[in-house]
Amino acid sequence: MVKTVGKLTLKDVAAQLGVSNATVSNAFNRPGQLSRELREHILDQCRVIGYPGPNAAARSLRTGKTGIIGVMLSNYLSYSFSDPVAHQFLQGLAEVFEEREYNLLVMPSRDHVKLTSGYESFVDGFIVYGPPQPQKLDQLISQHKSIITVDFEIEGCVSVNIDNYAGALACAEHALASMSPAGHAAILGLRINDQNRVCRLEEGLLFGESTITIQRLRGFQDAAKTYKMPIHPRMIWQIPDNTHKQGYQAAKEALMSNPRPEVLLCMSDRIALAALQAARHLGLRVPEDVKITGFDDIPESHTQHPTLTTVHQQSKDKGTIAAEIFLGMREEKSLVLATELMIRESCP
Protein backbone atom coordinates (compact mmCIF):
# COMPACT_ATOMS: atom_id res chain seq x y z
CA MET A 1 0.00 0.00 0.00
CA VAL A 2 1.42 3.40 -1.01
CA LYS A 3 1.60 6.12 1.64
CA THR A 4 -0.98 8.76 0.85
CA VAL A 5 -0.06 12.44 0.67
CA GLY A 6 -2.45 14.98 2.14
CA LYS A 7 -4.81 15.14 5.07
CA LEU A 8 -6.81 11.94 5.48
CA THR A 9 -10.22 11.66 7.02
CA LEU A 10 -11.56 8.65 8.89
CA LYS A 11 -13.86 8.03 5.91
CA ASP A 12 -10.88 8.00 3.50
CA VAL A 13 -9.01 5.49 5.67
CA ALA A 14 -12.03 3.19 6.02
CA ALA A 15 -12.45 3.16 2.24
CA GLN A 16 -8.77 2.34 1.64
CA LEU A 17 -8.79 -0.47 4.20
CA GLY A 18 -12.13 -1.87 3.06
CA VAL A 19 -13.77 -1.61 6.48
CA SER A 20 -16.50 0.55 8.01
CA ASN A 21 -15.95 3.96 9.55
CA ALA A 22 -16.98 2.51 12.92
CA THR A 23 -14.31 -0.20 12.72
CA VAL A 24 -11.53 2.36 12.22
CA SER A 25 -12.95 4.52 15.01
CA ASN A 26 -13.16 1.55 17.37
CA ALA A 27 -9.53 0.62 16.66
CA PHE A 28 -8.48 3.96 18.15
CA ASN A 29 -11.19 4.68 20.71
CA ARG A 30 -12.88 1.42 21.74
CA PRO A 31 -10.36 -1.42 21.42
CA GLY A 32 -12.59 -3.84 23.27
CA GLN A 33 -15.01 -3.83 20.33
CA LEU A 34 -12.49 -5.50 17.99
CA SER A 35 -10.36 -8.62 18.05
CA ARG A 36 -6.73 -7.99 18.91
CA GLU A 37 -5.61 -9.12 15.43
CA LEU A 38 -8.03 -6.84 13.57
CA ARG A 39 -7.18 -3.83 15.72
CA GLU A 40 -3.42 -4.32 15.26
CA HIS A 41 -3.90 -4.74 11.51
CA ILE A 42 -5.86 -1.49 11.23
CA LEU A 43 -3.39 0.45 13.37
CA ASP A 44 -0.44 -0.90 11.36
CA GLN A 45 -2.05 0.13 8.08
CA CYS A 46 -2.89 3.57 9.47
CA ARG A 47 0.77 4.08 10.34
CA VAL A 48 1.75 3.10 6.79
CA ILE A 49 -0.58 5.61 5.16
CA GLY A 50 0.19 8.30 7.73
CA TYR A 51 -3.17 8.51 9.49
CA PRO A 52 -2.69 9.51 13.18
CA GLY A 53 -6.24 8.77 14.25
CA PRO A 54 -9.49 10.71 14.74
CA ASN A 55 -9.07 14.32 15.80
CA ALA A 56 -9.49 14.47 19.58
CA ALA A 57 -10.94 17.97 19.62
CA ALA A 58 -13.50 17.13 16.95
CA ARG A 59 -14.41 13.91 18.74
CA SER A 60 -14.94 15.71 22.03
CA LEU A 61 -17.22 18.24 20.34
CA ARG A 62 -19.20 15.45 18.72
CA THR A 63 -19.54 13.11 21.70
CA GLY A 64 -19.13 15.49 24.60
CA LYS A 65 -16.41 13.17 25.95
CA THR A 66 -12.65 13.66 26.08
CA GLY A 67 -11.51 10.42 27.73
CA ILE A 68 -9.86 12.47 30.51
CA ILE A 69 -10.82 12.01 34.17
CA GLY A 70 -10.02 14.72 36.72
CA VAL A 71 -8.59 13.48 40.03
CA MET A 72 -8.75 16.12 42.76
CA LEU A 73 -6.40 15.47 45.71
CA SER A 74 -6.98 17.05 49.10
CA ASN A 75 -3.33 17.94 49.59
CA TYR A 76 -0.25 19.15 47.75
CA LEU A 77 0.75 17.10 44.71
CA SER A 78 4.21 16.31 46.12
CA TYR A 79 2.67 15.17 49.43
CA SER A 80 0.05 13.01 47.75
CA PHE A 81 2.59 11.17 45.61
CA SER A 82 4.93 10.52 48.56
CA ASP A 83 2.23 9.42 51.01
CA PRO A 84 1.99 5.59 50.92
CA VAL A 85 -1.80 5.49 51.33
CA ALA A 86 -2.43 8.06 48.59
CA HIS A 87 0.08 6.25 46.38
CA GLN A 88 -1.82 2.96 46.74
CA PHE A 89 -5.13 4.68 46.01
CA LEU A 90 -3.76 6.30 42.84
CA GLN A 91 -2.33 2.96 41.74
CA GLY A 92 -5.73 1.28 41.97
CA LEU A 93 -7.33 4.18 40.12
CA ALA A 94 -4.72 4.27 37.36
CA GLU A 95 -4.76 0.53 36.66
CA VAL A 96 -8.48 0.55 35.84
CA PHE A 97 -8.44 3.68 33.70
CA GLU A 98 -5.19 2.77 31.96
CA GLU A 99 -6.55 -0.61 30.92
CA ARG A 100 -9.48 1.13 29.27
CA GLU A 101 -7.29 3.83 27.71
CA TYR A 102 -8.53 6.78 29.76
CA ASN A 103 -6.17 9.55 30.85
CA LEU A 104 -5.99 11.13 34.29
CA LEU A 105 -5.60 14.81 35.05
CA VAL A 106 -4.34 15.07 38.64
CA MET A 107 -5.26 18.31 40.39
CA PRO A 108 -4.13 19.48 43.85
CA SER A 109 -6.41 21.17 46.35
CA ARG A 110 -3.91 22.86 48.62
CA ASP A 111 -1.44 24.10 45.99
CA HIS A 112 -1.81 27.58 44.58
CA VAL A 113 -3.19 26.18 41.33
CA LYS A 114 -6.36 27.85 40.17
CA LEU A 115 -9.17 25.97 38.49
CA THR A 116 -9.98 29.14 36.60
CA SER A 117 -7.42 28.10 33.98
CA GLY A 118 -10.30 26.18 32.41
CA TYR A 119 -8.93 22.66 32.40
CA GLU A 120 -11.64 21.49 34.79
CA SER A 121 -14.16 22.06 31.99
CA PHE A 122 -12.28 19.70 29.66
CA VAL A 123 -12.58 16.51 31.75
CA ASP A 124 -15.45 14.02 31.64
CA GLY A 125 -15.92 14.01 35.41
CA PHE A 126 -14.11 14.00 38.73
CA ILE A 127 -12.90 11.61 41.39
CA VAL A 128 -12.21 13.61 44.54
CA TYR A 129 -9.85 12.01 47.07
CA GLY A 130 -10.29 13.55 50.49
CA PRO A 131 -12.16 16.82 51.20
CA PRO A 132 -10.63 19.64 49.11
CA GLN A 133 -10.74 23.32 49.89
CA PRO A 134 -14.39 24.46 49.84
CA GLN A 135 -13.99 26.92 46.98
CA LYS A 136 -12.39 24.28 44.77
CA LEU A 137 -15.13 21.78 45.57
CA ASP A 138 -17.72 24.43 44.66
CA GLN A 139 -16.00 24.94 41.32
CA LEU A 140 -16.11 21.22 40.58
CA ILE A 141 -19.79 20.98 41.48
CA SER A 142 -20.57 23.97 39.25
CA GLN A 143 -19.39 21.95 36.24
CA HIS A 144 -22.45 19.63 36.61
CA LYS A 145 -20.39 16.54 35.82
CA SER A 146 -20.12 13.16 37.50
CA ILE A 147 -18.34 13.31 40.86
CA ILE A 148 -17.28 10.36 43.00
CA THR A 149 -15.87 11.15 46.43
CA VAL A 150 -13.40 9.02 48.36
CA ASP A 151 -12.78 9.31 52.13
CA PHE A 152 -15.54 11.91 52.52
CA GLU A 153 -19.13 12.53 51.46
CA ILE A 154 -21.08 15.28 49.75
CA GLU A 155 -24.82 15.26 49.20
CA GLY A 156 -25.96 13.80 45.91
CA CYS A 157 -22.65 12.08 45.04
CA VAL A 158 -21.58 8.45 45.26
CA SER A 159 -18.81 7.90 47.81
CA VAL A 160 -16.27 5.19 48.64
CA ASN A 161 -15.18 5.10 52.29
CA ILE A 162 -13.76 2.76 54.88
CA ASP A 163 -15.21 2.19 58.35
CA ASN A 164 -12.75 4.43 60.18
CA TYR A 165 -14.71 4.43 63.42
CA ALA A 166 -14.92 0.63 63.70
CA GLY A 167 -11.25 0.22 62.84
CA ALA A 168 -10.13 2.73 65.45
CA LEU A 169 -12.48 1.29 68.07
CA ALA A 170 -11.17 -2.26 67.59
CA CYS A 171 -7.55 -1.12 67.67
CA ALA A 172 -7.96 0.96 70.82
CA GLU A 173 -9.93 -1.75 72.63
CA HIS A 174 -7.12 -4.21 71.91
CA ALA A 175 -4.42 -1.81 73.14
CA LEU A 176 -6.24 -0.58 76.24
CA ALA A 177 -7.17 -4.12 77.38
CA SER A 178 -3.55 -4.75 78.35
CA MET A 179 -2.99 -1.41 80.10
CA SER A 180 -2.55 -1.27 83.90
CA PRO A 181 -5.48 0.15 85.93
CA ALA A 182 -3.49 3.29 86.77
CA GLY A 183 -2.06 3.63 83.27
CA HIS A 184 -2.60 6.42 80.76
CA ALA A 185 -3.02 6.51 76.99
CA ALA A 186 -2.28 9.27 74.50
CA ILE A 187 -3.59 9.92 71.01
CA LEU A 188 -1.42 11.24 68.21
CA GLY A 189 -4.07 12.73 65.95
CA LEU A 190 -3.96 13.93 62.37
CA ARG A 191 -5.72 17.08 61.12
CA ILE A 192 -8.33 16.98 63.86
CA ASN A 193 -8.57 20.74 64.38
CA ASP A 194 -7.68 24.03 62.75
CA GLN A 195 -4.18 24.44 64.22
CA ASN A 196 -1.44 24.34 61.58
CA ARG A 197 1.21 23.14 64.03
CA VAL A 198 1.95 20.22 66.32
CA CYS A 199 0.11 20.95 69.57
CA ARG A 200 -2.16 19.47 72.20
CA LEU A 201 -5.90 19.45 71.56
CA GLU A 202 -6.75 21.86 74.37
CA GLU A 203 -7.44 24.72 71.98
CA GLY A 204 -8.93 24.76 68.51
CA LEU A 205 -12.25 23.51 67.23
CA LEU A 206 -12.63 19.96 66.01
CA PHE A 207 -13.28 19.58 62.31
CA GLY A 208 -16.63 18.20 61.15
CA GLU A 209 -17.87 14.78 62.20
CA SER A 210 -17.56 13.46 58.64
CA THR A 211 -13.78 13.71 58.39
CA ILE A 212 -11.94 10.42 58.61
CA THR A 213 -9.67 11.49 61.46
CA ILE A 214 -12.59 12.70 63.58
CA GLN A 215 -14.18 9.28 63.10
CA ARG A 216 -10.94 7.65 64.25
CA LEU A 217 -10.78 9.99 67.23
CA ARG A 218 -14.33 9.01 68.24
CA GLY A 219 -13.39 5.34 67.98
CA PHE A 220 -10.36 5.83 70.24
CA GLN A 221 -12.36 7.85 72.76
CA ASP A 222 -15.28 5.44 72.90
CA ALA A 223 -12.92 2.54 73.55
CA ALA A 224 -11.34 4.53 76.38
CA LYS A 225 -14.78 5.15 77.90
CA THR A 226 -15.55 1.44 77.72
CA TYR A 227 -12.44 0.72 79.81
CA LYS A 228 -13.18 3.72 82.07
CA MET A 229 -9.90 5.31 81.01
CA PRO A 230 -11.00 8.63 79.48
CA ILE A 231 -8.26 10.42 77.53
CA HIS A 232 -7.91 14.08 78.53
CA PRO A 233 -7.49 16.65 75.69
CA ARG A 234 -4.01 17.37 77.07
CA MET A 235 -3.08 13.83 76.06
CA ILE A 236 -4.30 14.28 72.47
CA TRP A 237 -1.92 15.80 69.95
CA GLN A 238 -2.87 17.60 66.75
CA ILE A 239 -0.50 16.85 63.83
CA PRO A 240 -1.31 18.94 60.74
CA ASP A 241 0.51 16.80 58.12
CA ASN A 242 1.14 13.07 57.94
CA THR A 243 4.94 13.33 57.96
CA HIS A 244 7.69 11.57 59.91
CA LYS A 245 9.05 14.88 61.25
CA GLN A 246 5.77 16.06 62.74
CA GLY A 247 4.90 12.59 64.02
CA TYR A 248 8.29 12.33 65.73
CA GLN A 249 7.83 15.73 67.41
CA ALA A 250 4.39 14.82 68.76
CA ALA A 251 5.51 11.36 69.92
CA LYS A 252 8.54 12.76 71.73
CA GLU A 253 6.38 15.32 73.52
CA ALA A 254 3.89 12.63 74.52
CA LEU A 255 6.54 10.19 75.74
CA MET A 256 8.21 12.92 77.82
CA SER A 257 4.91 13.80 79.53
CA ASN A 258 4.35 13.14 83.23
CA PRO A 259 2.82 10.66 83.68
CA ARG A 260 4.21 8.94 80.61
CA PRO A 261 1.55 7.12 78.57
CA GLU A 262 1.64 3.34 78.43
CA VAL A 263 -0.13 3.35 75.06
CA LEU A 264 0.20 5.62 72.01
CA LEU A 265 -2.80 5.41 69.67
CA CYS A 266 -1.61 6.86 66.35
CA MET A 267 -3.93 7.89 63.52
CA SER A 268 -1.55 6.73 60.80
CA ASP A 269 1.29 4.28 60.34
CA ARG A 270 3.65 7.10 59.41
CA ILE A 271 3.04 8.70 62.79
CA ALA A 272 3.35 5.34 64.56
CA LEU A 273 6.66 4.54 62.85
CA ALA A 274 7.96 7.96 63.91
CA ALA A 275 6.78 7.16 67.46
CA LEU A 276 8.78 3.89 67.39
CA GLN A 277 11.88 5.91 66.56
CA ALA A 278 11.15 8.50 69.26
CA ALA A 279 10.76 5.72 71.85
CA ARG A 280 14.12 4.20 70.87
CA HIS A 281 15.84 7.58 71.13
CA LEU A 282 14.39 8.04 74.62
CA GLY A 283 15.61 4.59 75.70
CA LEU A 284 12.12 3.11 75.91
CA ARG A 285 11.32 -0.46 74.92
CA VAL A 286 8.37 -1.29 72.69
CA PRO A 287 6.09 -2.94 73.77
CA GLU A 288 7.49 -3.40 77.32
CA ASP A 289 7.58 0.30 78.28
CA VAL A 290 5.11 1.70 75.76
CA LYS A 291 2.73 0.07 73.31
CA ILE A 292 2.22 1.76 69.94
CA THR A 293 -0.52 1.26 67.34
CA GLY A 294 -1.00 2.70 63.88
CA PHE A 295 -3.65 2.92 61.18
CA ASP A 296 -3.43 2.11 57.41
CA ASP A 297 -1.16 -1.00 57.25
CA ILE A 298 1.34 0.48 54.79
CA PRO A 299 4.14 -1.89 53.65
CA GLU A 300 6.65 -0.48 56.16
CA SER A 301 4.38 -1.44 59.06
CA HIS A 302 5.35 -5.11 58.78
CA THR A 303 8.99 -4.68 57.69
CA GLN A 304 10.14 -2.51 60.62
CA HIS A 305 11.19 -3.94 63.98
CA PRO A 306 9.17 -4.21 66.07
CA THR A 307 6.45 -4.82 63.53
CA LEU A 308 3.49 -2.49 63.90
CA THR A 309 0.07 -3.35 65.27
CA THR A 310 -2.26 -1.41 63.00
CA VAL A 311 -5.58 -1.26 61.16
CA HIS A 312 -5.55 -2.52 57.61
CA GLN A 313 -7.54 -0.42 55.17
CA GLN A 314 -8.13 -1.27 51.52
CA SER A 315 -6.28 1.71 50.05
CA LYS A 316 -5.72 0.33 46.55
CA ASP A 317 -9.23 -1.16 46.43
CA LYS A 318 -10.71 2.28 47.08
CA GLY A 319 -9.13 3.52 43.86
CA THR A 320 -10.15 0.44 41.90
CA ILE A 321 -13.76 0.62 43.09
CA ALA A 322 -14.08 4.38 42.50
CA ALA A 323 -12.81 3.96 38.93
CA GLU A 324 -15.12 1.02 38.24
CA ILE A 325 -18.16 2.92 39.52
CA PHE A 326 -17.22 5.91 37.38
CA LEU A 327 -17.00 3.73 34.26
CA GLY A 328 -20.28 1.94 34.97
CA MET A 329 -18.57 -1.36 35.76
CA ARG A 330 -20.15 -1.40 39.23
CA GLU A 331 -23.52 -0.36 40.58
CA GLU A 332 -23.67 3.37 41.20
CA LYS A 333 -24.06 3.34 44.97
CA SER A 334 -21.98 4.44 47.95
CA LEU A 335 -19.82 1.86 49.70
CA VAL A 336 -18.18 1.57 53.12
CA LEU A 337 -15.34 -0.96 53.12
CA ALA A 338 -14.47 -3.01 56.20
CA THR A 339 -11.17 -2.68 58.06
CA GLU A 340 -9.12 -5.37 59.82
CA LEU A 341 -7.03 -5.21 62.98
CA MET A 342 -3.48 -6.51 62.39
CA ILE A 343 -1.92 -7.53 65.73
CA ARG A 344 1.87 -7.46 65.66
CA GLU A 345 4.87 -6.87 67.95
CA SER A 346 4.37 -3.20 68.90
CA CYS A 347 1.17 -4.03 70.80
CA PRO A 348 0.71 -7.81 71.07
Automatic annotation (TrEMBL):
Keyword field: DNA-binding, Transcription, Transcription regulation
Keyword presence, Transferase: no
CDD domains, per the entry: HTH_LacI (cd01392), PBP1_LacI-like (cd06279)
Gene Ontology MF term list: DNA binding
Matching PROSITE patterns: HTH_LACI_2 (PS50932)
Keyword Ribosomal protein: no
InterPro entries: HTH_LacI (IPR000843), LacI/GalR-like_sensor (IPR046335), Lambda_DNA-bd_dom_sf (IPR010982), Peripla_BP_I (IPR028082)
Domain HTH lacI-type: 8-63
Pfam families: LacI (PF00356), Peripla_BP_3 (PF13377)
PANTHER family recorded: LACI-RELATED TRANSCRIPTIONAL REPRESSOR, TRANSCRIPTIONAL REGULATORY PROTEIN
The protein's name: LacI family DNA-binding transcriptional regulator
Organism of origin: Sessilibacter corallicola
